[in-house]
Design a protein that fits this description.
Blueprint: E1 13-18, H1 25-34, E2 38-41, H2 42-48, H3 55-64, H4 77-86, H5 88-111, E3 117-121, E4 136-141, H6 144-155, H7 159-166, H8 172-178, E5 181-184, H9 189-207
Parallel strand pairs: 1-3, 1-4, 2-3, 4-5
Helix pairs in contact: 1-9, 4-5, 6-7
Length: about 210
Amino acid sequence: MRERTDATFSSKLIVGLTGGIGSGKSAATSFFAELGVNIVDSDIIARQVVEPGTLTLTQIANHFGAEILLSNGALNRSALRQRIFLEPQEKTWLETLLHPLIREETIRQLDEVTSQYAILSSPLLLETGQDVLSDRVLVIDAPEKLQIERTRQRDATTSDAVTAIMATQWNRQQRLAKADDLIVNDGDLQHLHSQVIHLHEKYCSLQS
């Protein structure tokens, strides 16, 4: 088992769950949740820290201008993505603001875990260095052609659009090289479920 870089929070086993787009991360995470495992989701936290009324959202609006907000005062994520795509230095500014806040809230939630172990679910767990918060890394893996097909059907998008997103993530070989545990999600949900149950039993035995 890897040595967690920050051992000052949570004595519980923390499993960082990640995988490429269309690999089945959400389905796997849902199965762990059904088994009573506490889930800390980085995507949810990233939305929480910029909710209307937060100082963070005010800072973003002050920096980018009021047009970065929707009519209801919420963040216009589409406009923000377009802005930071066109201006890389703005992406750096945004990450410098958000990443410490996301990390702080992630640690707070992990510290409140009540189940035998916790799942830290993050699509960019490895890319953003969040794996230092976990004791083990679980990679949900699927063949790239299957990733593209699942995402294309789910999001009603094109193969080219999915491929472009995949290019911003680590490739399969990079993720697998960092994996302590692996689920190969190339079958049906029952096949995925059985692998989750197997790992759940393993994690419970590691924690006990």
